[in-house]
Amino acid sequence: MSGTAEIYDAVLNPGKLELLRSWVRTQSWFDGDPERLEQVTAYRFVDPEGEVGMESFLLSDGARTFHVPVTYRGAELADAADALVGTMEHSVLGRRWVYDAPADPVYTTEVRRVISHRDAAADHLQVEDGSVTPSPVNIRGGGEGGAEGIDAPQVIRVVSEDNDAESDCPLIGSPGTLTGTWEDADGRHTAVLVVVD
């Protein structure tokens, strides 16, 4: 099971969306206006060791949806300066180093486990009142994919709901994929978010 992610009622400086808008403008897969980006939803995984936070954002610029998974660490990740999204001050946890998740071994291990075990995203625990809610994104692993792999998982950055193997699109729910279903103002959406070898 993916467990339960602890969510704090905290003040962040800078805020998550501000940090992500600044970072995506430098990424080759993003060619839009970062100031138009708004958060649609997000889902989480849990580090079994309890040290690294993992949150995957779905952001929209009004025309496209982008998938941006990050990790939160209490100290710098060695040899990962190129993957640093930025730092933020968390009013409860202190300084957090935020990384592009595919460069973080904790994330790559967990996303492979979720896929291979046909697992789901973590539930959310509000630390202040103890309430638990399910993930707002229905995540499901497609099985196989293996817990170990040579290549980093392929994160689908620009989300597509195409589901056609002949068009070289990963099939929703197929082995080696992580699929998400969520709802927004435009309705219900399902797409492949990660593919592993």
From TrEMBL:
This is Maltokinase N-terminal cap domain-containing protein. It comes from the Bacteria. Residues 23-104 form the Maltokinase N-terminal cap domain. Keywords: ATP-binding, Kinase, Nucleotide-binding, Transferase. The keyword ATP-binding applies. Residues 128-150 are annotated as: Disordered. Pfam families: Mak_N_cap (PF18085).
